[in-house]
Design a protein that fits this description.
The protein is mainly beta. It has a single domain, classed as Jelly Rolls (Sandwich), CATH 2.60.120.10. It is 3% helix and 45% strand.
Length: 121
């Protein structure tokens, strides 16, 4: 069994949001995103992968398709495959999110373990 401490993995950086790989398989990955005030993930899409954002702490401004909403802690949203999506921290407080994606893009989850290049924005 593989266990991970989500709270122990929280890490912020002044230069950009942090993506921290927590768990991964060939079919799914779980990341922790840490955004300081003013940081964002650019809007992008994944042709064959669904993504779920779950707000752990703070307020996230999340765009999926043409719709943008502010989500509070304890709220989740689905970004279906092919839909443009992104997240921003427009609040004055730190933001942490769990991000689930299935299937992982080819570059994200090598067989047998955690991605090696998942820290950074």
């Amino acid at each position: 069994m593989r266990l991970v401490s989500v709270t122990g993995a929280v890490h912020f950086a002044d230069e950009r949001m942090q993506k921290i790989g927590l768990l991964a398989s060939e079919r799914l990955f779980l990341d922790l995103y840490c955004l300081q005030s003013g940081q964002a993930q650019r809007v992008h899409s994944h042709g064959d992968s669904d993504k779920i954002y779950y707000v752990l702490h703070g307020r996230a401004t999340i765009q999926v398709g043409a719709e943008e909403r502010e989500l509070l802690a304890g709220t989740a949203v689905l970004a279906p495959a092919g839909e443009p999506h992104g997240v921003a921290n427009r609040s004055g407080d730190p933001l942490t999110l769990l991000v689930f994606m299935a299937p992982p893009p080819a570059h994200a989850a090598p067989p047998g373990g955690l991605p090696t290049d998942r820290v950074g924005g």
